[in-house]
Amino acid sequence: MTKAFFSSGDVIADRRADYARMLAESGDHAAAADLMNQALEIAPDWAAGWDLLGSFHEKAGNVSHAIAAWRRLEALDDEGTFGARLKLAAYDAGAAGEGTAVGYVEALFDQYAPQFEASLVGKLGYRVPEMLEQMVREEMAKLGLTSVGKALDLGCGTGLMGERLRDAVTHLEGVDISAAMIAETARKGIYDSLQKAELVATLNARRSDIDLMTAADVFIYCGALQPVLAALVRALKPGGLVAFSLEAHDGEEALFLRPSLRYAHGIGPTREALVVAGLEVLRFETAILRFDRGAPITGILVLARRPAIDVSAANEVADGDDRAA
Fold first, then answer.
1. What are 243's strand-pairing partners?
2. Nearest of 157, 128, 99, 163 to residue 243 by alpha carbon
């Protein structure tokens, strides 16, 4: 995604960039790149301009030129707002790094917040909150539960997941990395509390106090699952439930970064990661999550539980028991 247009500070450079964007919108990405190059000759340290140039080259099919633009962008964007590192990694021109690219994801959703629901639900056929809700409610019915105590909605966004579970929980918390998303959902009055924070840091600050955790299309921005799963297991109460979605691929690798800058996770490695984290898998399904440029995006839907009995703690007691047999 190209970030919102920021002024270069030079009127002529801005004007040429405007014309370049108009050409891109008409489909002439090669001409847009040529004009953007002219703008950057005037304003060579303009980070947003290099981001635009990279996107024009990419859409024109000139990947090597796009990579060159993103390398320049990476040098200018200390906070990672434009996601240059991820864009390079998506084309095997660099390493994606560990964990969430916080600066990029925060900026992405701050910009996206005002049109988030209209775009995602109205245009892309997004159904993840609905599908996760069904899984959670079916499991609650099996357990004879009509509600649970405390729920935490990770990456709560504008509250699409939270509003579906509001009547099934006593206390509902939402956390999101984007202040703009928090502001959008705060207007709805869905959550008992809202927090702007990175999700792993949030989970690491909790200890066994959550009955239900949800993450609808959130871990697709986090990369490796293991740190996330380890943190959420510690935050769940024994017997607590977690429901989340991932984008999927059929290969043997644990994950790879798509040109969309979202991670796709392998089906087999994801199952293994859940077991290693100590979660009991209740549901593990593949489904169409939404559409992207007309193409279906296949994903994984997971419902899992932290075991009611902490096996590791029980083993420690047994190992240290010196009573006579």
1. 214, 303
2. 128
